[in-house]
Every structure is written in structure tokens, then in C-alpha cells.
Amino acid sequence: MPLTYNFIRNKVSREIHEMNMEIQIQLQLLSLENNLRDLQEVLEGAPKYSLNVSGQVQASKASEDVFDTIPEGFEITKKFVIGVKQETELIGVIEIDLEVKNFF
Asked: What's this model's pTM, rounded to 2 decimal places?
């Protein structure tokens, strides 16, 4: 089955249900044009995460990097940036790069 936004949304929803978690979240496909500011707020709100991952605090253009950056030597032909919302607030993000060429 090809990975699509709907497939990923359904898979995450099933995983949460199987863990018997009582969390009401929605997943929303994000876009650079519509969600840049909200995504930047989420990234800046989790400084320990960025320190652990990259060794530095999030830059002012970190949200742009989520949409644009790919690892050196890789070619990404499909990329999904999925927002995790609780009620109307963006509380997290899932970044999925598909069809990565030259992985191994």
C-alpha cells in the first residue's frame, strides 16, 4: 500500500487507540504558505528537543527548514509535514520524507 497522508493519519489514530490513550488530537497536513508561524511557535516552545537533536536552540527560520531541508546526499521526491493539533492548537509536528533515494 502506498504511503499517503490518509494512510499515515489512520495508522497514528489506530496506534493511539491501541495504547488506550484518551487523547483527542487531529492530524492536519501543513503547508509552508499557511502554517509557518504556528509551526515556528511549536519549535520555539520545545528548546530541549532542539538542543538534544541538533545541539542548538531553534533558529528563527526553523519552521522553513522543516519544509525545505533534506539530509546531504539524499533526494526526497515526496515530503509530508503533518501537524498534531489538540482542539485548535498546534502542539506537535510529524515530518515524513518518502521515496528517499541513496539511503544505503
From this structure: 0.65
The cell 527560520 sits on which residue?
61
CB 34 within 8 A of CB 60: no
Burial-class residue 64 by CB neighbours within 10 Å (0-12, 13-18, 19+): middle
Show me where the domains of the chain are located: 5-101
The helix or strand, by DSSP H or E, that contains position 75, with its residue range, turns out to be strand 75-86
Residues facing residue 100 across a β-bridge: 76
Which ranges of 1-104 does DSSP label H, i.e. alpha helix? 5-18, 32-44, 47-54, 62-68
Buried b (16+ CB within 10 A) or exposed e, 71-81: eeeeeeeebeb
**Amino acid letter, 88:** T
Cα angle, residue 43 at apex, residues 19 and 91 outer, rounded to 5°: 40
Place of cell 499557511: 34
pLDDT digits (tens, 9 = 90+) for 46-68: 777 777 767 777 777 888 888 88
- Assigned C-alpha cell, 28: 492536519
